[in-house]
Specification:
The protein has 276 residues and is an alpha+beta fold. It contains two helices and twelve strands, in the order ααββββββββββββ. The chain starts with a helix and ends with a strand.
């Protein structure tokens, strides 16, 4: 054991002498102190590994920064697209409103005695037994129950059946609860128009109490006869079919509503007029 230990000690001495010689050579060549050279020799592999790690960290940081930058640009582009789409919708809406006002101008010139309040639809209430919507104006704008709502073309939309300070409910002509005195424009036949929901004619109107011998044609125009609620001459709808009622004595006609209720955005409430 002692001999083995002596041999190991000799080798350690030899290695120490060699390291000292290397350090001396390095000092002579680089002009640095022996300790510094040894430390640098030992730390060089770690410095290389550290440099590689720093480069990887920098690359990862650059990737994260670039990703966040792309995310921000993507978000900005989406916001710009949404804004552009909103501008297009606003432009389309303004164009449609201008067209409605242009048509209304002609109606105003024809009926100078009519006083109207324009209002936009804010919600719909439609079921198998009711057809109504809410507008964004009410009693503060002179709107109250019992006033008729029309389109810019003078087509009957419905009747105001409830109102608050800044809202009102309009029950449409499709609702069977409304009854409108009407006349066939081409013949003068009179009757009453009600919504066809209760009679199973959903989406249509029904004109009752027509004479037995009345001659009715498809697309004949049906107008209001005039009352304290409905001015005379408003367009209610167009005849699509006719038949006898259950009694076999009187006729009835089915009408297509004149107003395009499915695409309605804005209505005009007649607040006052001279009944002729």
């Amino acid at each position: 054991m002692k001999k083995h230990f002596s041999s190991r000690a000799k080798w350690l001495i030899v290695i120490s002498i060699l390291l000292a010689m290397l350090a001396t050579v390095s000092l002579a060549m680089n002009g640095s102190r022996p300790g510094e050279s040894i430390v640098q020799t030992v730390l060089t592999p770690f410095r290389s590994a550290g440099s590689a790690l720093v480069r990887e960290i920098e690359q990862y940081y650059n990737y994260i920064f670039q990703y966040e930058k792309l995310q921000a640009e993507n978000k900005e582009l989406k916001a710009r697209i949404i804004a552009m789409e909103e501008d297009v919708r606003s432009a389309d809406s303004l164009q449609r409103e201008n067209e409605r006002l242009h048509q209304l101008l002609g109606l105003t010139e024809e009926h100078e005695d009519w006083k109207r309040v324009s209002a936009y639809i804010i919600s719909w209430e439609t079921s198998n037994w009711k057809s109504a919507f809410t507008i964004g104006k009410g009693t503060n704008s002179g709107i109250h129950e019992g006033l008729v709502a029309i389109t810019e073309y003078g087509q009957v939309v419905g009747l105001v059946t409830a109102a608050g300070p800044n809202w009102a409910t309009v029950t449409t002509v499709l609702d069977s609860s409304l009854g409108i005195g009407a006349s066939v424009a081409s013949t003068g036949y009179n009757g009453e128009v009600k919504g066809g929901m209760a009679s199973g004619s959903e989406g249509l109107l029904r004109m009752n109490y027509l004479p037995t011998d009345s001659v009715l044609r498809n697309n004949d125009q049906v107008l209001t006869t005039g009352s304290t609620v409905y001015p005379r001459g408003l367009i209610i709808g167009y005849i699509t079919d006719a038949d006898f009622d259950q009694t076999g004595v009187a006729k009835y006609a089915l009408l297509r509503p004149a107003a395009d209720l499915d695409n309605l955005e804005q209505v005009f409430i007649i607040t006052d007029y001279e009944n002729q």
